[in-house]
Specification:
Elements lengths: L2 H14 L9 E3 L2 H19 L3 H6 L3 H7 L2 H11 L1 H4 L1 E12 L2 E10 L4 E10 L5 E10 L6
Antiparallel strand pairs: 1-2, 2-3, 3-4, 4-5
Length: about 150
């Protein structure tokens, strides 16, 4: 099993911890949801590239915003912990998964230094129907940058 598959399985296991899992617990997500979710992630990555902390922070869920408290703290965390997300060379949007009702968007990043990582974006739909990022789990991969 690749590190990528292990990371996806680990994240999905964390989501369904405490319950039994079945093949129906993880399915491909809806194309319309995927389009809206990719737009949110793309907008946040674009904000990182511009060093626009206010815009990047606005794509985080209310819970994430409460956790960090300010765009500056949020940006410092991303800069120090997620370099490939903060300054990607390339971004590839992969599967949208639904795991026990939670939408998880897989995003493959290649950093400026050609390191690769898979980011699993946990998404949260807001009462107004918009999507916000409710957390990211990342894993280094053995995949080669292209």
């Amino acid at each position: 099993m690749t590190r990528l598959a292990i990371a996806t399985a680990l994240f999905c296991t964390l989501l369904i911890a405490g319950g039994t899992s079945s093949a129906q617990d993880m399915v491909e997500g809806d194309a319309a949801d995927r389009l809206a979710i990719v737009e949110v992630i793309e907008a946040q990555v674009a904000a990182f590239r511009r060093d626009d902390g206010d815009a990047a922070f606005s794509y985080a869920s209310p819970g994430i915003r409460a956790l960090f408290g300010s765009p500056d703290r949020f940006m410092r965390m991303v800069q120090s912990s997620y370099e490939s997300v903060y300054r990607p060379r390339s971004v590839e949007y992969r599967r949208l998964l639904v795991v026990r009702g939670e939408l998880i968007q897989e995003v493959f990043f290649v950093g400026l230094d050609l390191t690769t990582m898979l980011a699993l974006y946990r998404m949260e739909q807001q009462p107004d129907g918009t999507w916000r990022i409710d957390g990211v789990l990342v894993a280094d991969t053995k995949e080669q940058a292209t």
